[in-house]
Amino acid sequence: MTLTVLNVFRSETNETLSWLSMKIEVEGHMLRVKNAINVLQRNLNLLIDSVMNAQKGVLQPQIISPITLMEALIKSVSAFPKDTTFPFPLSKDSAHFVLRLCDLQLYIKNGILGYVILLPLVNRGNFNIIIIIIIIIIIMFRKD
Asked: How many domains does the chain have?
């Protein structure tokens, strides 16, 4: 009798352990799915915010930070047209000027969000400015 009770208890314990093991495994999968959904939701929110802000002409730092943009500009300065430069110094300290002066164009094609960042260039040449002041002299002729 005792042996039968022990066998029943052992089989019940094995079933319970098996059930708990499956439950833990399923909960682990559910947690991974939940984390994946949260990541997708954050990315979707970032995409929506990016599109909305880009339509307003604002470049989000999550897309590209001003420092990263400045580093890319510094690396590509040799590709600029001859005798042109930016209206601000190319240093990491002046990265905030990039956001002030840039103009954004947004496009979405084949599910890809793209930005065209337009920055003004100025000529490096020296110019002589001549101001001509025109003095109008009115001569009144009198008939005598």
From this structure: 2
* Dist. CA 26–CA 32, nearest whole Å: 10
92: containing domain: 60-144
Q: In this structure, what token pair is assigned to residue 26?
A: 């399923």
pLDDT at position 7, please?
Answer: 80
Q: Among residues 79, 43, 63, which one has the least CA distance to residue 116?
A: 63
pLDDT band at 24 (very low <50, low <70, confident <90, very high): very high
Task: Mark whether 73 and 115 lie in a shared domain.
Answer: yes
Q: Exposed, middle or buried by CB within 10 Å (0-12, 13-18, 19+), for 117?
A: middle
Q: Residue 98 burial by CB count (10 A; 0-12/13-18/19+): exposed, middle or buried? A: buried
| 25 and 83 housed in the same domain | no
Q: Is 128 exposed, middle or buried (0-12, 13-18, 19+ CB in 10 A)?
A: exposed
